[in-house]
Amino acid sequence: MWIADAERDGERAAHLAPTVLDDDELTRAAAFRRTEDRLTYLLAHVALRQLLAAVTGRSPRKLRLVRDPCPCCGAPHGRPSLDDGSVHFSLSHSSPMVLLALSSAPVGVDIERLPQPRTIADVGRMLHPTEIAELQALDTAASPLAFARVWTRKEAYLKGLGTGVAGNLSRDYLGTGAYPAHAPAGWSITDVTAPDGFAAAVAVRSTPQP
User: Fold this and answer.
1) CA distance 210 to 208
2) Same domain, 10 and 98
């Protein structure tokens, strides 16, 4: 796993981007209106391609990134992958922070800035009933971190599955506390140390333990 900061390394990534990213990524980067968001995107994708190139021995720009079939509908918008499936990876960014993971098994990561109360009120109702109750029992000051914990755990897991947040956020109980609750069978979910004001998590498919 790697964590990076666009405030520190974004300009360097922008300098490298024309020789590292493909045309679609460069077009997406140019569409961002805010400089911070554009540099964060560039850093995430430049770093990902450089890491994949180091592992595979291939040229960063010639790596072909594709989408696996969606587990829900079969359409090609599932988990991102290399065309040869040699390395599993996941990336997430929340300006200016970037989180990446490479793995021999399906993996998902998520990093998020601590939310505003309005976000907690609007999105919190989509969680597991026990998680909703846990959030409602907290005071206002404790709610942002608790919500960010459970949200990053869920998004990392759903990205690992390949469904993304289109998956059922209320199905699995992952908890809002300091440590994740018991992960779904066949998965390991762990919180990741993140800078102040952010929360992060990683989910990796694993052999179920006795």
Assistant:
1) 7
2) yes
Could you give the CA distance from residue 130 to residue 118 in angstroms, rounded to a whole number?
A: 20
Say if residue 196's pLDDT is above 60: yes
Looking at residue 22, which CATH number applies to its domain?
3.90.470.20
Whether residues 118 and 100 fall in one domain: no
Global confidence as pTM? 0.93
CB 29 within 8 A of CB 17: yes
CB 107 within 8 A of CB 201: no
Same domain, 65 and 100: yes
- Scored b (16 or more CB within 10 A) or e, 46-64 reads bbbbebbbeeeebebeebe
In the sheet that 88-94 helps form, which strands lie side by side, from edge to edge? Answer: 2-5, 97-103, 88-94
